[in-house]
Amino acid sequence: MKTRITFSSFLQSLFAFCLVCTLAFSANAQQTTLIDNIVAKVGNHIVLRSELEFQHANAVRQGFTSPTIRCEVLRSLVQNKLLLARAEMDSVIVDESLVSAEVDRRLSTFVAQIGSPERLEEYFNKPMGEIRSDVRRSIKEQMTLQKMEREISGEIKVTPKEVKRYFNTIPKDSLPYFSTEVEVGQIVKIATIGAAQKNAAREKLEAIRQRILAGEDFSELAIQFSQDPGSGPAGGELGFHSKRELVPEYEAAALKLQPGEISPVIESMFGFHLIQLIARRGEEYNSRHILIKPETAQVDMEATAQQLDSIRTLILNDSLSFAKASKDFSDDMATKGNGGMITLPNSPTTYIPVDQLDPSIFFVVDTLDIGGISKPLPYRTNDGKEAMRILYLKSKTPPHQANLKDDYQKIAAAALNEKRSKAISDWFEKNKDTVFVDVVPEFEACRLDEN
Q1: Pfam families this protein is in (predicted)?
Q2: pTM
Q3: For 350-385, where are the E strands, in sequence order?
């Protein structure tokens, strides 16, 4: 059937959450006895039954228990596939280097959380190359959706008058009750690696290079020595990539090689690489590498703490604002552009319920007065780097029912989300017939042409 599509902001948020669960979905799919099949086609994109069931289960776990929730999730999936299909038609392209960087960051986080690349492979019952491919596909889809949504509604803003009008439409007995919330900022400094550690890594990789030139197998040495959790277990092979998908230093070295040739040792933001070009196919190339990272066990934590302590003193003496210090000195890309303020995932507000704070943050800020800044504290970044940070308690709000004075930021975000959702809904109304959508008869009762 040809289906009419409209948009639901709630379901957009739900699908954005579910996109980051792709790996868990893949692992779950290995264990289910359900025979998988296609439940919807949207242009060149498909929705699998297992995908629908897994994301429905996620919605239920988050507390969405409407009798029509399965239809709501299917509608969300179909609508987002339509966005992806239109992105292809409109040539909406995301920066492949940003995708690659996020893939590397996400994989490093996964490996750090589970303990090792081998345990990650065991958990998901697939080799690291397939895990990387799954993560890349998920992240690229997510970034494409976000770019499409920005193009449709990114310029929309709300005025204070609109925020007030939105708040006044909420029935008084439906206003949410907020627990204690805090605004917390951080300035992070990654501990520096000395020249001795860098030289040791370079020399180790140079010795491996000599072994390869003497006749040993590149892939076997990659499995044995490479510290890239994504490609090391696969013999260092990265698969075919287009230009600008990998870091510039790596790409420049790889494209100078002939198939089978070995590069000199080169340095990038990830460490030191030894590269072998496998093949070229038009504008794409396949390569393998061995990555050696400088030893971080001997990073200078004391010097890093002293640097942060100097920054802290400037802030406490009113010589520098915390926001300016974060922008100028912090190594945390996620917060330095936000005045150093920490937010929850997929949340536009800086107010965080204390029961959702990371314990390592809670037990520090609980001892601070408003405006207080902690002493430098040891910290490990999401990608496993040793660092130090200082924490800043900007504000603390006691438990209360939602009101414009204390919760303007949250209410404004909700009003803006509603306005953007309306813009995207209007976009769907205009573009719903530009992509053919086919849904299996079993789900015709979902009436996907309705909100």
Answers
A1: Rotamase
A2: 0.53
A3: 352-353, 377-380
